[in-house]
Design goal:
The protein is built from ten helices and seven strands. By secondary structure, it is an alpha/beta fold. The protein has a domain at 92-283: Endonuclease Chain A (Endonuclease, Chain A, 2-Layer Sandwich). The chain has a seven-stranded mixed sheet, with helices on both faces. The protein is elongated and about 135 Å long.
Length: 321
């Protein structure tokens, strides 16, 4: 910098000797501007180098953070997989309420190889509340029945009278039918089954449900591998047990009109449920209870004609007191 000042000093002395002041002034301005430009260029170059250095550091930090995030994500995925494995290996787990339990029930039914015991209120379990799930359910039962000629499926359900009582409790009777008509499941069911005229009264609705049960019962009864028995009293525990290895059990909460379900591989639980099923199976009839219209009325007492009175008196005299 001192050299630059000395240079300017000598240069000014030279300019004093010059004869054109304007030219001298322009020359001074040009030199000063060039010096300033050089200084600014040097500063910008230093700033550019610093920015490039910071950019490189930021890029390295970004790569490092991305790698750390990838490692953490892999660790979380591994932990999630491990937790799922632990959850799936638990002997008993909650699988939800009705009709969300249909998926697990179908899986248990499809796993049966030798024996399947079912204790439930209706043959067509879930056909109204979850028609798609029910279709998979009954298809799985039929698939198993087709694979074996001997009895391998025992189905314990309510008798007709108990089933009618259960349906009345489920749907709340005639007073609640108006709300049922406007429900999504009502619209979906009759849309799915393509009924030309959905029932307009509670009695018609109950008749429709009863006919569907009878249709499903006839559908399964044609297989020699399936035996159906009927309970006259309702039970609050529903069971699906395959090969004594895995089961779904459901408790019907009558006060709340809902069912909670569990899936288990616990040997003690399955053994206990199996004994309960065997006891109920022995106590139940192999045919549904007679409908009210099928029950025979007692014979009427016939009057004795006057012509028959003497013969009766004679018979009484011969026999004696």
């Amino acid at each position: 910098m001192d050299y630059l000042y000395a240079f300017f000093g000598h240069f000014l002395q030279f300019l004093h000797a010059a004869s054109e002041p304007v030219t001298v002034s322009l020359a001074i301005i040009a030199i000063v501007y060039a010096a300033i430009q050089k200084h600014e260029s040097s500063r910008l170059l230093r700033s550019s180098s610093e920015l490039k250095k910071e950019s490189d550091e930021l890029q390295q930090n970004t790569k490092r953070h991305a790698e750390e995030m990838r490692v953490q994500r892999n660790a979380m995925e591994g932990l999630t997989s491990e937790m799922r494995s632990i959850a799936s290996s638990m002997s008993t787990k909650y699988i939800g309420g009705f009709p969300k339990n249909m998926s697990d029930i179908c899986e248990v039914v499809s796993s049966a190889d030798h024996k399947l015991d079912i204790q439930v209120d209706l043959v067509a379990y879930g056909h109204y509340s979850n028609p798609e799930g029910f279709q998979r359910y009954i298809d799985k039962i039929e698939d198993f029945a087709k694979r074996t000629p001997q009895t391998a499926i025992r189905l314990l359900v309510y008798s007709d009278e108990a089933a009618q009582s259960g349906r009345a409790c489920q749907f709340g009777g005639p007073d609640a039918f108006r709300d049922e008509i406007g429900s999504e499941r009502f619209q979906r069911y009759f849309r799915l089954y393509k009924c030309p005229g959905p029932p307009g009264t509670y009695e018609e609705f109950m008749e429709c449900m009863s006919k569907e049960q009878e249709s499903c019962r006839s559908r399964l009864a044609r297989y020699s591998a399936i035996e159906i028995r009927y309970a006259t009293l309702p039970f609050r525990l529903f069971l699906w047990i395959e090969d004594g290895e895995e089961a779904v059990f459901a408790f019907e909460m009558s006060a709340r009109r809902r069912t909670i379900s569990f899936r288990t591989r616990d040997g003690n639980l399955i053994h206990t449920f199996g004994e309960l099923f065997e006891q109920n199976w022995r106590e139940c009839a192999p045919k549904p209870a007679l409908q009210e219209t099928d029950k025979k009325s007692p014979k009427a007492i016939t009057k004795v004609s006057q012509a028959e009175v003497p013969s009766l008196r004679a018979l009484s005299a011969r026999v004696g007191p």
